[in-house]
Design goal:
This protein has about 280 residues and is of the alpha+beta class. It has 2 domains: about 150 residues, Up-down Bundle (Butyryl-CoA Dehydrogenase, subunit A, domain 3); about 110 residues, Nuclear Transport Factor 2, Chain: A. A 6-stranded mixed beta sheet has the order 2-1-6-5-4-3. This is ECF RNA polymerase sigma factor SigJ. Pfam families: Sigma70_r2, Sigma70_r4_2. GO terms for molecular function: DNA binding; sigma factor activity. Interacts transiently with the RNA polymerase catalytic core formed by RpoA, RpoB, RpoC and RpoZ (2 alpha, 1 beta, 1 beta' and 1 omega subunit) to form the RNA polymerase holoenzyme that can initiate transcription.
Length: about 280
């Protein structure tokens, strides 16, 4: 049974969404999808009974290999690391399967998981695979996969309760924008948690805070300072980034940054500013 062009069209979104969630990188996920299919086209094996599982295993192995080398690059990364923003307004069906496991908060927490824990968590919680299917992909026993899932869930418990309702979150983002523009401190305290943390990702390519900024007063001071230095052609839009409303800032005729949010109990708990130009290719 061979992999066909129809299989490519059918399973490409699944493999991309898996790769992006594993790596937090659009470019790396796209490269591994292409590599997976190039290798799969060359295989003529009658033992391939389940193409979906076969392709998922190939893609997973490539992600695991890359993670081992990527972990070293993360250690050398300058300042906080944020996942590459994924714009979903063009044709979401081409790049994503569902919104679960896609938010900035989720992907940043994934960095605290081992590669195998990432695989089990995604396949079990996001894609609904059984432990038997996951065990085949990882070539481990089912019981080992159960333990990996339990550990992963425990590590990810910090973001339990995150709101993924786009309309509700958009309302909060627009309230934040209005309160920020009018310098309505009372409204900002209602919308933003007093211990909010801001993660600014410049990757050493542009000026950005190299440590997380903690507390509402410190975060607002930084944001107001940035706005004061904005050029005359500055403008922003609210876009669907990673399945959630985010602020896309434009300066000097290009995307300058993306501001994403972790919202829980109708309050902004964390703010992520992505400024690394390598991650703003849209």
């Amino acid at each position: 049974m061979q992999i066909s062009n129809d299989d490519y069209l059918q399973y490409k979104p699944l493999l991309f969404s898996l790769g992006y969630r594993m790596l937090g990188s659009v470019a790396e996920a796209e490269d591994l999808v292409q590599d997976t299919f190039l290798k799969a086209y060359q295989v003529n094996d009658e033992k391939i009974e389940n193409k979906k599982a076969y392709l998922c295993k190939m893609m997973t192995n490539r992600c695991l290999d890359l993670l081992k080398s990527a972990r070293h690059r993360r250690e050398q990364y300058i300042g906080p690391w944020n996942p590459e923003p994924l714009l979903l307004e063009n044709d979401p069906s081409e790049v994503i399967i569902q919104k679960e496991g896609l938010s900035f908060a989720f992907l940043r927490m994934m960095e605290h998981l081992s590669p195998d824990e990432r695989v089990v968590l995604l396949f079990k919680e996001v894609y609904g695979f059984s432990y038997k299917e996951i065990a085949i992909i990882l070539e481990k026993k089912e019981e080992a996969c159960r333990k990996l899932f339990s550990r992963a869930k425990q590590k990810m418990s910090q973001i339990e309760g995150e709101s993924l309702n786009y309309e509700t979150n958009a309302s909060i983002v627009y309230r934040f924008i209005h309160a920020f523009q009018t310098q309505n401190i009372t409204a900002l305290f209602e919308i933003i948690h007093e211990n909010v943390t801001l993660y600014s990702d410049g990757g050493g390519k542009v000026n950005a805070a190299i440590r997380p900024i903690v507390s509402l007063s410190n975060v607002l001071s930084l944001l107001y300072g940035v706005v004061k230095k904005a050029p005359n052609d500055f403008f922003f839009e609210v876009k669907n980034i990673n399945g959630q409303p985010a602020i896309v800032n434009h300066m000097n005729n290009k995307v300058q940054s993306v501001i994403s949010f972790y919202i829980k109990q109708d309050q902004i708990q964390e703010i992520y500013i992505s400024m690394n130009p390598d991650k703003l290719n849209f």
